[in-house]
């Protein structure tokens, strides 16, 4: 009886986790550059004192859907999108390099180029700081940043830096809890990160954004499936309780 309750209780808990993951995907259906997460459930052996007779379920995120989202034109000078397999390099909270598809950029009063999520954009020589004040900014296909200083002639543009855009295969990156992508640990351990340098194959598309690759219909169907699984596990626990009560009644009769 306890095995039945153990499996049902752990299954209900993991079904809720899967529901949370799918709800997060659905909530980011309109988030620029968002990559949806996969959900996977598997059985795990529980080890401890005594014989390993208990098995529980575990919900995990094996990876993210790395397919490209749709490209939409915005006409905004500070909006960019990268071609397929192209990634923009930014700094994470620890100051280390990470990668993102978020191309909504802003300029701080200090001239720092930031994403809409507050990440410092990295260029060839490190974090990008633009020489203020400027009247216009343009991004070339190779990631070069051209600006026209305030008061300069209308046809004058000078290159001040270049975006550090890399080209990485889907199998080389993984998503962190902060939503940024990084090389997989095994690549870093073996010092294999040739794609971490600027790529000349990536094209930067100015005035456009890559949207989320979330399929709302698919996520809704998965949410319904996880909800039904949760209800099934709860019914199983109630059934176990009813069987236990009947056993108690039989013992009283005897």
UniProtKB/TrEMBL annotation:
One of the Pfam families matching this protein, by short name: Flg_bb_rod
Domain Flagellar hook protein FlgE/F/G-like D1 stretches: 84-147
Annotated keywords: Bacterial flagellum, Cell projection, Cilium, Flagellum
Cellular localisation: Bacterial flagellum basal body
Domain Flagellar basal body rod protein N-terminal: 6-35
Main location: other
UniProt similarity note: Belongs to the flagella basal body rod proteins family.
PANTHER family found in the cross-reference section: FLAGELLAR BASAL-BODY ROD PROTEIN FLGF, FLAGELLAR PROTEIN
Name of the protein described by the UniProt record: Flagellar basal-body rod protein FlgF
Organism for this UniProt entry: Pseudoalteromonas prydzensis
């Amino acid at each position: 009886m306890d095995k039945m309750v153990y499996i049902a209780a752990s299954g209900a808990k993991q079904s809720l986790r899967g529901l949370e993951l799918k709800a997060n995907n659905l909530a980011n259906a309109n988030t620029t550059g968002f990559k949806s997460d996969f959900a996977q459930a598997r059985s795990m052996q529980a080890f401890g004192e005594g014989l390993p007779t208990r098995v529980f379920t575990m919900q995990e995120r094996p990876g993210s859907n790395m397919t490209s989202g749709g490209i939409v034109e915005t006409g905004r000078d500070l909006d960019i999108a990268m071609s397929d397999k192209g990634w923009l390099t930014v700094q994470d909270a620890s100051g280390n390099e990470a990668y993102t598809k978020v191309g909504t950029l802003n300029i701080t009063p200090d001239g720092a180029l930031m994403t809409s999520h507050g990440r410092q954009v990295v260029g060839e020589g490190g974090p990008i700081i633009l020489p203020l004040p400027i009247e216009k900014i343009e991004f070339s296909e190779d990631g070069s940043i051209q600006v026209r200083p305030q008061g300069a002639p209308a046809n004058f543009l000078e290159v001040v830096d270049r975006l550090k855009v890399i080209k990485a295969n889907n199998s080389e990156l993984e998503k962190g809890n902060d939503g940024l992508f990084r090389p997989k640990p095994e690549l870093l351990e073996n010092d294999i990160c040739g794609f971490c340098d600027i790529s000349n194959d990536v094209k930067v598309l100015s005035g456009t954004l890559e949207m989320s690759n979330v399929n709302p219909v698919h996520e809704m169907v998965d949410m319904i499936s996880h909800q039904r699984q949760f209800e099934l596990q709860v019914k199983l626990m109630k059934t176990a309780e009813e069987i236990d009560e009947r056993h108690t009644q039989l013992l009283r009769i005897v």
